[in-house]
Write a structure and sequence with these properties.
313 residues; single chain; 8 strands; two-stranded antiparallel sheet; globular; 11 helices; alpha/beta; Rossmann fold
């Protein structure tokens, strides 16, 4: 660890005091815990089970295979930290990041962009004098071409036929919405992550995933990977770029669905797989009996964001 503990703790306090974590008590607790344990040289102890017990107050019988709270909250925290460094923390002297597939934070210094090489023009090599060109022999005049009468007549007939074709009105077949979308942005909707592995939460997350995938495809504005293809990456903490490459899409949606007594809370984000950067984040609250309206809202907002982002490229 090349950075001093005090320097890291100062950066930690800046993140915890930012608006992106305002009111997110559980995420703030998770971030402070993994940073402090890493500073203490105990980063190798940051396992899913340990975080579930130490941070999220799970009992000793906690089974990460049945309760995905650590994975869900780690994804949310990773997204919040990335959002912070895209905004208020962009100019900070130290960056705290949480690599995908790990709970151990990394402390790094932003690399300055070097412009000296670009601003210094390359020396221009002297141009060698060219040898004198030898005079060429005079070119004999070309004999005039005498038009052949039947060739001229054929040319007139061909011109007439071409004009008739151009002037004849023809109806153009309409391009289906799916064909139009194939040339636009493409996205894969990864399975929404449930708050727990209870049957009710798992079914609710699957229902929202199916709804968003279907509603977005029905809009016809973007190309959507099939639900079957995207579902194979559910629960896997893999690099977005690898997932997008296998599904042949440019964008990937990651989301979580957290049930509560008063309804369901959804946090969705769209990641540009080429840049590995979030381009849109949305949070939604809905009653459980109004899921259809919820998925339509998410699909419409996602379509609008993708068309806006793609138009800037």
């Amino acid at each position: 660890m090349s950075h001093a503990p005090d320097e890291i703790r100062a950066e930690l306090d800046r993140i915890l005091g930012a608006d992106v974590l305002a009111g997110a008590t559980r995420l703030s607790r998770l971030l402070r815990y993994i940073v402090e344990r890493t500073i203490s040289g105990e980063g190798d102890q940051l396992k899913e089970y340990v975080l579930g017990v130490e941070v999220f107050d799970r009992p000793p019988s906690y089974d990460p295979r049945l309760d995905s709270i650590v994975r869900v909250e780690a994804r949310r925290l990773r997204a919040k930290v990335e959002e912070y460094y895209l905004g208020p923390g962009a100019a900070n002297p130290l960056v705290i990041s949480i690599p995908r597939g790990s709970y151990v934070p990394v402390f790094s210094t932003p690399s300055p962009i070097t412009t000296a090489a670009a601003s210094t023009p390359d020396p221009i090599a002297p141009v060698a004098p060219t040898a004198p060109v030898a005079p060429t022999a005079p070119v004999a005049p070309i004999a005039p071409i005498v038009p052949v009468p039947w060739l001229a007549a054929g040319a007139l007939v061909a011109a007439g036929l071409l004009g008739a074709l151009l002037l004849t009105p023809r109806s153009q077949p309409a391009v289906p919405a799916t064909a139009q979308a194939s040339s636009g942005p493409s996205i894969a909707i990864l399975p929404f992550q449930p708050y727990s592995r209870s049957e009710a939460d798992v079914l609710l997350a699957a229902r929202i995933t199916d709804g968003v995938t279907g509603d977005l495809a029905r809009l016809g504005t973007v190309s959507v990977a099939s639900r079957t293809s995207a579902s194979q990456f559910g629960g896997e903490d893999r690099a977005v770029r690898d997932v997008a490459a296998q599904l042949n899409v440019a964008f990937v949606m990651e989301a979580s669905a957290i049930s509560a007594p008063e309804g369901v809370h959804v946090q969705a984000r769209v990641v540009d797989a080429v840049l590995d950067r979030k381009v849109w984040v949305g949070e939604y609250d809905s009653r459980v009996d109004d899921i259809q309206q919820l998925t339509r809202r998410i699909a419409q907002d996602t379509s609008t964001a993708l068309l806006r982002v793609s138009g800037k490229r």
